[in-house]
Automatic annotation (TrEMBL):
It is found in: Golgi apparatus membrane. Belongs to the glycosyl hydrolase 99 family. It is a single-pass type II membrane protein. It catalyses: N-{alpha-Glc-(1->3)-alpha-Man-(1->2)-alpha-Man-(1->2)-alpha-Man-(1->3)-[alpha-Man-(1->2)-alpha-Man-(1->3)-[alpha-Man-(1->2)-alpha-Man-(1->6)]-alpha-Man-(1->6)]-beta-Man-(1->4)-beta-GlcNAc-(1->4)-beta-GlcNAc}-L-asparaginyl-[protein] + H2O = alpha-D-glucosyl-(1->3)-D-mannopyranose + N(4)-{alpha-D-Man-(1->2)-alpha-D-Man-(1->3)-[alpha-D-Man-(1->2)-alpha-D-Man-(1->3)-[alpha-D-Man-(1->2)-alpha-D-Man-(1->6)]-alpha-D-Man-(1->6)]-beta-D-Man-(1->4)-beta-D-GlaNAc-(1->4)-beta-D-GlcNAc}-L-asparaginyl-[protein] (N-glucan mannose isomer 8A1,2,3B1,2). This is Glycoprotein endo-alpha-1,2-mannosidase.
Length: 463
């Protein structure tokens, strides 16, 4: 009887252990199944989303095949299908958020960077856009006759003095958008200042890009970046059209988690709009929109925001104040080109802003060269001096203790102000400038360095 009881207990224990083991195996299988992408089928690499490099190559192949199909379709079909294609690509390429946060510097939402989404190539757009920029003639015909005319012929000959690591890319290519977001995040910038024209409008060398905004917002959110808008001087821009367009932007994009809102000293969270070439509109027109008593006022409405004007000449500071703007920025990356872009004037501009309750946002840049599109403009070239010019600009900006610093630019290739990765290239008669002896990411790394320095110094200012 004793032996029988022992054997019975042993069998029960063995059955329980066996049952627990089977349950453990089942749970492991279920967990592995949840890691497999929903879209995976036979031949689709297991765990694709967990291998960023493999995933990036696969996404690039997918996007290239999609682009070939789109080029054969008409323009309307291409535009209407783009957002869904890009969103699906983004979902397929999502890396674990925690992994991204571990790998990249934390975003600095007081570092704003100007970004252009106006580039195109035949693969995604049916033709080259902006890379084939024309050579702009000098306004004096006698001088103009001394310089070449025509336009650039991509992909070997582009409208830039440097050559991008990504080649003559399309701003619609999801893999390009993702690479840009990762570069901006690695530089510890926090807010993308997106060049913007109203729907159906564009600069004279480009195509409308408003349809791309939702995709840029989605990718920015993936990298914990925010997006604000750089309103360009579109045709017939005035108080009424600005009211309409600000309303359009806030209604359409204001609910997106990547839409930027700035916390004011009074605790309000408000959208922010940079207004390029604001000085071409007289202060009385702006005052209609930007002052409480204006006939077209946007103040104290659901569409109220912070409006930042471009300051070029010293007298503009009084016009900006009279117009009802909330602040000013200097944009140009050429120290000495204008009153606003001259570093030695920033202290007096900051003092003026402080005394008139305005924000002063200095713009720093790594250098300037636009002779690929303005061959007569050598006198405004600013040599990068292997990064020293950029660091000097940051140092000058920090001296005035600004609430925000803007960076000109991430990818304004025509004017040579980009911090995007560039590579050495020689083709035919063209030898492009490069970042040597440093690597292609040097200006991203310098931006990250000064972002951290700014954060530390800001802590001291607030003490």
């Amino acid at each position: 009887i004793l032996n029988y009881d022992i054997m019975a207990r042993f069998r029960r224990r063995t059955c329980i252990i066996l049952l627990l083991f089977i349950l453990f195996i089942c749970s492991i299988m279920m967990a592995l199944k949840t890691l497999r992408p929903d879209r995976a089928g036979f031949g689709d690499p297991f765990g694709l989303g967990l291998l960023p490099e493999l995933q990036q190559r696969a996404v690039l192949l997918d996007s290239k095949q999609n682009s070939l199909n789109r080029v054969q379709a008409d323009t309307v079909t291409r535009v209407s299908n783009f957002h869904s294609i890009a969103v699906n690509t983004m979902k397929a390429s999502m890396s674990p958020v925690n992994k991204l946060e571990d790998e990249l510097s934390s975003p600095n939402y007081n570092f704003h960077i100007f970004y252009y989404s106006w580039f195109g190539n035949p693969q995604f757009d049916g033709k080259y856009i902006h890379w084939n920029h024309p050579l702009l003639p000098h306004w004096d015909p006698k001088i103009a006759n001394n310089y070449p005319k025509g336009r650039h012929n991509p992909p070997e000959d582009i409208g830039a003095n440097f050559y991008p690591e990504l080649g003559s890319y399309s701003s619609k290519d999801p893999s390009v958008i993702e690479a840009h977001m990762k570069q901006m995040r690695s530089a510890s910038t926090g807010v993308i200042v997106l060049s913007w024209y109203p729907p159906g409008m564009a600069d004279e060398n480009g195509e409308p890009t408003d349809d791309l905004v939702p995709v840029i917002l989605d990718y920015a959110h993936k990298y914990n970046l925010k997006v604000t808008f750089h309103i360009e001087p579109y045709k017939d821009r005035d108080d009424r059209s600005m009211y309409h367009n600000v309303k359009y932007i806030i209604d359409k994009y204001g609910g997106h988690p990547a839409f930027y809102r700035h916390k004011t000293s009074t605790g309000r969270l408000l959208p922010m709009f940079y207004v390029y070439d604001s000085y071409v509109t007289i202060p009385e027109i702006w005052a209609n929109l930007l002052t409480v008593s204006g006939s077209q006022t946007i103040r104290n409405t659901p569409y109220d925001a912070l409006f930042i004007a471009l300051l070029v000449e010293e007298r503009h500071k009084h016009d900006i104040h009279r117009s009802g703007f909330d602040g000013m920025y200097t944009y140009f990356a050429t120290n000495g080109f204008s009153y606003g872009s001259s570093h030695h004037n920033w202290a007096s501009l900051k003092a003026f802003c402080d005394s008139n309750n305005l924000m002063f946002i200095p713009s720093v840049g790594p250098g300037y060269i636009d002779t690929s599109i303005r061959p007569w403009n050598n006198h405004n070239t600013r040599n990068r001096v292997n990064g020293k010019y950029y660091e000097t600009a940051f140092s000058a900006a920090l001296l005035v203790r600004p609430e925000i610093i803007s960076i000109t630019s991430f990818n304004e290739w025509h004017e040579g102000t980009q911090i995007e990765k560039a590579v050495p290239k020689r083709t035919g008669q063209v030898v492009y400038l490069d970042y040597k002896p440093h690597k292609p990411s040097v200006y991203l790394e310098l931006t990250q360095k000064w972002s951290e320095k700014y954060r530390k110094e800001q802590e001291q200012w607030l003490m």
